[in-house]
């Protein structure tokens, strides 16, 4: 790599170029990132302290919140800092590390969302076998498989990119290092790499999305035989997950399933799955979930009671 690479750092164009808008975006995205961290941390802390939130769905939701924090932290802090910097640079190693992190946590989130859909399918379509199928061991294995799958996917993407020679230019028309903008800068033919990227990233996103759609069609069909109360509760839970899936998979699939084109368009779409979706996930899962809201109220009241006792 040292013999064929003349590039030691990359220059990022950032999300926008207008200086006045950059200052406004700095405030807006700083608030967004704060909501992402605090909102997902609240879910991570609440679930272990509630006896009502011991089902596999909340086990997966806790990991989803953790992945959301990690995923947004790979890109958001640098994007926010770059709003105040004229020359937005990132080292070659830092760029590759960011590329690896984006695909590692992004793909892991895709697999965890798919696992949650499977959990909902078993809970609604096979309720009598739910406890025997979704054991703690099985849930742990599913989460481990999601992390492993994300790691393998990211490793393929990173190796496919770093094996290309970079001899200049070094300007990336994006606000973070991603595969499409990077391989465009390679001083060699990238047709095969482009196919690998679409086959790997695009097909994982599209394939998982199709599985999710089919699973929820089966779930919604089976709800006709449930009572009105059971149907209402199941629809409430599924609606939250479907909303999260659409917010994350729609933009993600659009970005990685089509060939490299207008990156200004890709940047706008990427904001949805790197910032907006991780920010809305905790809001969606808490505001539409009575069990989560009740658990948070009890945890908050418990802390107030303990604090009052210590003062006395």
Automatic annotation (TrEMBL):
Gene Ontology CC: plasma membrane
Start and end residues of each G-protein coupled receptors family 1 profile domain: 39-285
Organism superkingdom: Eukaryota
Keyword Membrane among record annotations: yes
Ranges that cross the membrane: 26-51, 63-85, 91-118, 138-156, 191-223, 235-257, 269-287
Protein family per UniProt: Belongs to the G-protein coupled receptor 1 family.
Protein name according to UniProt: Olfactory receptor
Species the sequence originates in: Salvator merianae (Argentine black and white tegu)
């Amino acid at each position: 790599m040292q013999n064929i690479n003349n590039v030691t750092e990359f220059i990022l164009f950032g999300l926008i170029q207008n200086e006045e808008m950059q200052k406004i975006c700095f405030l807006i995205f700083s608030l967004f990132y704060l909501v992402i961290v605090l909102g997902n941390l609240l879910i991570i802390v609440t679930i272990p302290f509630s006896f009502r939130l011991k089902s596999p769905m909340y086990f997966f939701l806790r990991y989803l919140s953790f992945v959301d924090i990690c995923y947004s932290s790979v890109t958001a802090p640098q994007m926010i800092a770059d709003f105040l910097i004229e020359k937005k640079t990132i080292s070659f190693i830092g760029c590759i590390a960011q590329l690896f992190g984006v695909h590692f946590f992004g793909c892991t989130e895709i697999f965890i969302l798919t696992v949650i859909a499977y959990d909902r399918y078993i809970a609604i379509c096979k309720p009598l076998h739910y406890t025997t199928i979704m054991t703690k061991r099985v849930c742990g294995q599913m989460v481990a498989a999601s992390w492993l799958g994300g790691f393998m996917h990211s490793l393929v993407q990173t190796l496919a990119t770093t094996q290309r020679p970079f001899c200049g230019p070094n300007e990336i028309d994006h606000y973070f290092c991603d595969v499409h903008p990077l391989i465009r800068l390679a001083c060699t033919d990238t047709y095969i790499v482009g196919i690998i990227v679409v086959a790997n990233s695009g097909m994982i996103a599209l394939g998982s999305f199709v599985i999710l759609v089919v699973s929820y069609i089966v779930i919604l069909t089976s709800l006709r035989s449930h009572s009105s109360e059971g149907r209402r509760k199941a629809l409430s839970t599924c609606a939250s997950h479907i909303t999260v899936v659409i917010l994350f998979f729609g933009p993600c699939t659009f970005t990685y399933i089509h060939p490299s084109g207008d990156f200004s368009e890709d940047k706008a779409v990427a904001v949805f799955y790197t910032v907006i979706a991780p920010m809305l996930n905790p809001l969606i899962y808490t505001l539409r979930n009575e069990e989560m809201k009740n658990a948070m109220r009890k945890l908050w009241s418990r802390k107030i009671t303990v604090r009052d006792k210590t003062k006395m």
